[in-house]
Design brief:
This protein is α/β, with parallel strands linked by helices. Helix content is 52%, strand content 15%.
């Protein structure tokens, strides 16, 4: 439950969610609340509830990822803007000219802090050793997979009721979801048995039912790109391998 609450708060961008929550309470208590605001807040709440229900029904767990809520977060920004404008309006009559300048400088600093915080995921992909290494893996292997793959671009695949699998090819099994999508195809976990390419670090024990296609050195570590030694897709007597349908 704690993880669910934390992820939900992060998904609504806490720098805006917390002030927005305070402003909502303030407007309700001051009888400034409108029907339009009720509808807007209802959209936000229903978005959270339905996202949580989908996961609860499909995965039987109460879980929330911040990326599911971020698209809805801007609906809260209006209350934050109103709160800042109202706060500034009340201070205008209390502050001397120098105080107003100081207040505007503080607002500017807060805006810069929010901008920096929003850019941090991108900055960390270059400054964090782990995230930088993952980025290099994706950037290095993407053009190689795009050039190597000669199969079909769209194909049916085994599906489960509890999860969605995009039918685009190539199917790339790895620990790096972006690699599959940047390669023009789709991603599956490296534990899956059906794939066009399996990407993993080269070890003494190679993966079973897979043949090494090529090997790449990235930041001093070797990564192998493997192809399956058996048909990728099997259902109702049909299978796909090397871009061809086998009956």
């Amino acid at each position: 439950m704690n993880e669910f609450i934390t992820s939900s708060l992060k998904g609504f961008y806490p720098y805006f969610a917390i002030p927005a929550f305070i402003i909502v309470i303030y407007r309700v208590r001051k009888k400034l609340w409108t029907r339009s605001e009720s509808l807007l807040l209802l959209f936000v709440i229903l978005h959270l509830v339905f996202e949580a229900l989908q996961i609860l029904i499909g995965a039987r767990t109460l879980y929330m990822s911040r990326r599911y809520l971020l698209p809805c977060a801007p609906l809260l920004f209006g209350w934050c803007a109103w709160g800042i404008a109202e706060f500034h309006h009340h201070l205008k009559s209390l502050l001397c000219p120098g105080g107003r300048i100081a207040f505007n400088i503080i607002l500017f600093i807060l805006a810069v802090i929010l901008l920096i915080d929003g850019l941090m995921p991108t900055v960390k992909s270059y400054t964090s050793p782990e995230k930088s290494h993952k980025r290099k893996i994706v950037e290095t292997l993407t053009p190689l997979l795009r050039e190597d793959y000669k199969g079909v671009r769209f194909t049916p695949r085994p599906t489960e009721a509890s999860r969605y699998q995009a039918p685009f090819c190539p199917i790339v099994a790895s620990r790096y979801p972006a690699l599959g999508y940047w390669s023009g195809g789709s991603h599956v976990p490296e534990e899956e048995s059906y794939y066009d390419y399996l990407v993993k670090e080269v070890t003494a024990i190679p993966p079973t039912e897979a043949n090494l296609k090529f090997k790449v050195e990235i930041s001093g570590r070797s990564y192998g790109v493997y192809v399956s030694s058996r048909p990728v897709y099997i259902e109702t007597g049909q299978s796909r391998r090397d871009g061809q349908l086998l009956h």
